[in-house]
Design brief:
Layout lengths: L12 H8 L3 H9 L6 H13 L4 H9 L5 E7 L8 H16 L3 E7 L5 H8 L5 E4 L7 H9 L3 E4 L10 E4 L1 H14 L5 E4 L6 H16 L9 E2 L5 H12 L5 E4 L2 H13 L9 E4 L4 H4 L6 E4 L2 H16 L7 E4 L2 E3 L6
Parallel strand pairs: 1-2, 1-3, 3-4, 4-5, 5-11, 6-7, 6-8, 8-9, 9-10
Antiparallel strand pairs: 10-12
Amino acid sequence: MAESETPWKKLTIEQIATALGVSKTTVSRALSGKGRIGEETRARVFAYVKDAGCDPSTLTRCSVRCTSHNLSLVIPSHFVQLDLPFFRKCMGGICRMATQRGYDILLCFADPTDMTQLQRQLEAKKVDGVILARTLISDPCLALVRTYGIPYAAMGRIEDEPEALQVDNDHVGAAWELTRLLVQKGLRRIAYLGGSDNYTVNIDRLRGYFQALEESGITPQPELICTGIEDNEQRLDALEAALERSPECILCSDDAVAVIVLKELQRRGLRVPEDIRLASLYDSEILLNSNPTITAVQFDAAALGAAVGRLLLDHMAGRATANRQMQGYQVILRESTK
């Protein structure tokens, strides 16, 4: 009998799993020797394969091949130096979902100038899928993943590929609603301090801000808008420029900007909200501990992580999915805008 007609060629992981009453992941881990699995279960799998007249080592090479039961979570390198509650919660949601499906998470730090770790994971076939924690307008990491043809999903909006797997918070809607609420309080001169224009999240937040002003009959004033802020020095410079224009309110793109702005306003002797209002387009624990507490938009980061993990794993399992999913938000009004 030719090698292509040998019996072990026809025995699949699914058939073994069905016969033994275990998951396909369990069978794959038993055969590959990778992942957590009890020795008794591993022995049952190998015994079944041998009883079927198959060579377990050959079956491992032919049927399991590159399955690693790992997912790569790609995080921008500079996030290592930051304390970001949002990503900690996202990671928790992703890890819980992966664990439920028999997968583990490998962290990967990458940026547009250094993708060494990601490329090493892909070349060595250490992962079965990739989750991108941030989406950029032009992202070499995304291009690299596409080159290897590996399944991927993103937390955020992918600009040039609407059919790609992506789960995002409704940043446009959130920025629109918070800006509209500020306008309803009688505020017209609302300064906006935002992050890097290369991140789609910052583009969407600014878009929502513009939409709310325009729908309220307010012409956006360029001198009240500063974007591209990436560090504390730039935050302070942006605030200095905004204060020279006498704004009634400062709307910050995230909690990190809001905390620095609040401290600097207080250092200057400006009272919040009596002298100037303050709001943030992202809420976190650090805002809850501020004095006064800061009006902000609340997102469920853990739910976002779980959703992107579920979407990718469903896709990898061949289940029908909606490629683009949107998560909700809640605007929390606090002391800083009274």
